[in-house]
Specification:
By secondary structure, this protein is of the alpha+beta class. It has helices at residues 7-47, 68-81, 88-106, 120-129, 141-150, 169-174, 211-216, 218-224, 236-245, 255-261, 308-318, 351-363; strands at 55-57, 61-62, 110-114, 134-138, 155-162, 166-167, 181-189, 193-196, 206-210, 229-233, 249-253, 264-267, 277-284, 294-301, 323-330, 338-345, 366-374. Residues 49-56 have low confidence and may be disordered. Residues 297-374 form the ACT domain.
């Protein structure tokens, strides 16, 4: 009678199987990378020595190395076809990194973000493009726009709204004059941590953080750190840098900032709302073709008259277009003159959306499509 395999023998057998699978994965990833290199050579040949990028086809438009709509479609398919046991989000993140590394073989990409290193905006850039992208820190949101406009960076990542504290107005204001378009969106769960050189909170007299983060942690800070003076700075990473230099100080920031600046995390996840989420926009010179699940962002203004906004938005309702967000901002063209930032579901190339936008354009004093882009996948 055969004896059952000993646990040690079973473990050895499973480990050998894992080693074999790892080699298969290596072979397939290398094959994918060689395909990416071939794609890069084909696109370089199409571009020619003069750098002009001709169209691959009328449907695809000009040659582009980074195709956000294609990546979004691939990641959606990965999540839909995932058999488990790994979670669909986890599998999609793995594929994001593979695609990021392969894209770097085609054309290394530069993405500007609100620095310094360790900010949530950098985390959003890495979530969107993967860790093979070269992230470049900028001091202000305005600098991000200018670097992308000048072509020094391929894309920029800017915060636009937080689920707790609302819209980031400076980002919206930049779209009033910028020719850049929205090419993607990133949704990032925000966890704020208290970090310091100090061993505990009793000696903390000064607390640094971004004003939005201070607001998002107001309840916790009022209860557990009422003695500390709160100082708003340009970013959470800058707050961590300052806390690393000053005794008796602390910062509210993300975990990457604690690692970069050598701080001890005294308290984790001190945000008042556990679902605290920030939405970021990816900006570039072109928006994205349709991915099948898209949003379109608009900038419009209406006549300053009774029922003006209602009349302006009527084409969306008449064509069955779902509006997911509307924000008003001063237009800077006159007193009490406002513009509206609107997000709708659908791509501007979709026939129903295109017809609604044409009617909306005719009814608007100011009409600007800020971009059509894939709905965030991760």
């Amino acid at each position: 009678m055969d004896q059952p395999a000993r646990p040690a023998d079973q473990l050895h057998e499973v480990r050998e199987r894992i080693d074999s699978i790892d080699m298969d994965l290596m072979r397939l990833i290398s094959e994918r990378a060689r395909c990416a290199q071939q794609v890069g050579r084909i696109k370089n040949a199409l571009a020619g020595t003069a750098g002009a990028l001709p169209a691959l086809s009328p449907e695809e438009g000009p040659v582009q190395y980074y195709r956000p709509e294609r990546e979004a479609a691939i990641l959606r398919r990965i999540k839909e076809k995932n058999p488990g046991p790994l979670d669909g989000e986890e599998v999609a993140r793995l594929f994001r990194e593979i695609m990021s590394a392969c894209l770097a073989l085609e054309q290394p990409m530069r993405a500007a973000y609100l620095g310094p290193a360790g900010t949530f905006t950098q985390a959003a850039a890495l979530k969107q493009f993967g860790h093979s992208v070269r992230t470049i820190a900028m001091a202000t949101i305005g600098e991000i726009f200018r670097e992308v406009e000048a072509g020094s960076c391929d894309y920029g990542v800017v915060p636009v709204e937080n689920s707790t504290e609302g819209v980031i107005s400076h980002t919206l204001d930049m779209f009033l004059a910028s020719p850049l378009l929205i090419t993607g969106e990133v949704s990032l769960r925000i966890h704020h941590h208290l970090m310091s050189r100090e061993a505990d909170t009793t000696t903390i007299g000064t607390l640094y953080s971004h004003q939005q983060s201070l607001a998002q942690c107001r309840g916790w800070l009022d209860r557990y750190l009422p003695q500390a003076q709160r100082v708003a700075v340009g970013s959470n990473a800058e707050a961590a840098r300052l806390a690393s230099l000053e005794a008796g100080s602390a910062a509210v920031a993300g975990l990457p900032a604690a690692e970069i600046y050598g701080l001890t995390v005294l308290e984790q996840s001190i945000e008042d709302e556990p679902g605290n989420t920030t939405r970021f926009l990816v900006i570039g010179p072109k928006d994205a073709p349709s991915s099948g699940q898209d949003k379109t962002s608009l900038l419009i203004s209406c006549r300053n008259a009774s029922g003006g906004l209602h009349a302006l938005l009527s084409p969306l309702a008449e064509h069955g277009i779902d509006m997911t967000r509307i924000e008003s901002r001063p237009s800077r063209r006159g007193i009490w003159d406002y513009v509206f930032f609107i997000d709708i579901i659908g791509h501007r190339a979709d026939p129903k959306v295109a017809e609604a936008l044409e009617h909306l354009k005719q009814a608007s004093l100011l009409f600007k499509v800020l971009g059509s882009y894939p709905v965030a996948v991760l």
